[in-house]
Specification:
By secondary structure, the protein is α+β, with helices and mostly antiparallel strands. The chain has two helices and twelve strands. Strands 1, 2, 5, 6, 8, 9 and 11 form a seven-stranded mixed β-sheet that branches. The chain has a five-stranded antiparallel β-sheet with strand order 3-4-12-7-10, with no helix packed on it. A hairpin with a 5-residue loop joins strand 8 and strand 9. Helix 1 runs antiparallel to helix 2.
């Protein structure tokens, strides 16, 4: 910064006088311009430092706690359901999970093909359903028992497994009209 001020002073001196010799009137103007330039440079350097300090002091770290709402889990014995059961198609993600995009008609239960899971593990199910219509999203256990949560909108639930065998994931629409539901499941 000092070198810049000296260079600025020399350029101003040369431009005002046309040479290195200066008259008293020009010298006053030269001093005014040089002092003004120095003040502006110093003020700019000071402001830059203060801006940096202000920026560092105002950085805010925000940690967002996403509490997943715990949904009530329901259980239904085999053969007690009133919905028509249909098998839905999947887009395989991996050996341990898949994605689905289904239109589920009214009073229909759409289910995945069977897959293997072990007791002590879990099945994590996510689904995006209409925000104005409740749907049942759940699993069918090897003995035929249906465990599900009932919700509308975005749904996430982890089903802890107490049996080893063939499982299915399902979406059941108890509404009169059809609903579109997208989702996925992962077996752990």
């Amino acid at each position: 910064m000092v070198w810049t001020i000296k260079l600025t002073f020399a350029v101003l001196l040369t431009s005002l006088t046309g040479s290195m010799v200066c008259r008293s009137r020009d010298f006053g103007e030269l001093v005014f311009v040089a002092v003004s330039s120095i003040i502006v440079c110093a003020a700019s350097a000071g402001m830059a430092g203060q801006y940096k300090n202000f920026y560092q002091a105002s950085v805010v770290e925000e940690v967002e706690n996403m509490d997943i709402m715990e949904l009530e889990e329901f259980e239904e014995a085999p053969g007690t359901g009133t919905s028509v059961e249909e098998e839905g198609e999947l887009q395989e993600m991996a050996r341990s999970g898949a994605m689905f995009t289904w239109t589920v008609s009214g009073n229909v239960l759409r289910k995945t093909p069977e897959f293997d899971a072990k007791a002590g593990g879990c099945i994590k199910v996510t689904a995006a359903a209409p925000v104005d219509k409740y749907v049942n999203v759940g699993i069918i256990e090897p003995d035929g028992t249906k465990r599900y949560v009932r919700e509308k909108g975005d749904i996430y639930h982890e089903f802890v497994l107490d049996q080893t065998g063939k499982y299915r994931v399902f979406v059941e629409n108890k509404n009169a009209g059809a609903v579109d539901v997208e989702g996925s499941y992962i077996v752990r």
